[in-house]
Amino acid sequence: MSRSAHPAGPRHADVMTEGHYTAPPADLNALDAKVWARTVTRDENGAVTVGGIEVTRLAEEFGTPAYFLDESDFRARCRAWADAFGRDADVFYAGKAFLSRAVVRWLKEEGLNLDVCSGGELTCALDAGMPAERIAFHGNNKTVGEIERAVTVGVGRIVLDSFQEIARVAHIAQRLGKRQRVQIRVTVGVEAHTHEFIATAHEDQKFGIALAGGQAAEAVRRALTLDGLELIGIHSHIGSQIFDMAGFEVSARRVVQLLAEVRDEHGVELPEIDLGGGLGIAYTSEDDPREPHEIAKALGDIVTRECEAAGLATPRISVEPGRAIVGPTAFTLYEVGTIKPLEGLRTYVSVDGGMSDNIRTALYDAEYSVALASRTSDAEPMLVRVVGKHCESGDIVVKDAFLPSDLAPSDLIAVPATGAYCRSMASNYNHALRPPVVAVRDGEARVIVRRETEEDLLRLDVG
Ligand code: LLP
Prior knowledge:
The chain is an alpha/beta fold and about 475 residues long.
């Protein structure tokens, strides 16, 4: 249903919300497969189930708020990406989206590689047994300690982000008697986000080394002369939640152009290019993400075409999806606490979590969907705003959505597509206890990240 159009709601007047018309979906009990994890459905009692387990049982056993992650969906998405890209390409899961030891084991078993961007993520990856050579280490300001550890354990690649870092990594590798495989992250002059494609002001950012003005070429020049470095390729990441492949096309073209310049100047054909992550997912029914095989084909075609035109052998491609793998696999389950109808406006539904378990709505104006999960209802739809329990009016989880008007305290509601950047960006604001992540698979549920306790909070407070 388009928010910008004025769709005719079946039995209800449309509601004007912040300049958009919103109409209720035809069936409030329906679960759109686009936004819910693959095994999510309703059972004969009307309760939402995941992996065959009712949310009512899950809430009893694990409490709320909690993230429930569909493990078989996660694994299926890993396989879909690995199969789509095939043997001539590498898929690096971006751990920043959500990382835990169980996730690392799943990635390892499903044949994916892992991109980490901090010492903490590196520790988690190594601790759970990811082979160092399957790890890529990113970041615009890695500490000397982080670099020393990454080089010592032998990570497969370090993605260099600045001139200082080129020298720093080279120096550390040499001191440790190693030759570190590296890529150089370039800014290609494109920044893409959902539905938009910005070709200005992109160089004004902290990541990477600009292609413009020959800076990236100079970075390659320096990297090629340093004994501690083995330059294996060029890296580019153009944004987040992207549906339109046009940005990747420009990015690939510009990276290949640099490879051709490097060949002309140094007689070296760099063997790899990494096109980053950023592929979009459906948060609401209005989003239409691409499937991994479509993405793989589009990127492969672009790179092959550009390389042919430049007379280069096609390099090995890598990609770094985070959100596209884990995002759709989880939902957050909340218990409704209070319901406050505001005459002529909307109804505020307060849940037992909020911006501490999902900062994305407050931070990025992100859109989410929501469903009554503990039961079905035939009551009329009501326009709601799902808000948290924090002392802040921006503490919004779902800005505009419809829930049945017989919603009552202690009903369970679920917000889908919260697998990426929700637990990983969760906070202890108001001394909130960060929720657990529970993996569900084939009728079994198991905590993979436990709920924080008040003792956890006090343990850090050593004053
Ligand atoms: N590779 C690099 C170099 C990245 O910087 C990122 C994300 C990724 C891969 C993975 O991107 P993904 O496929 O997950 O979109 N907190 C924001 C997203 C920040 C993304 C940062 N970099 C959010 O919640 O939307």
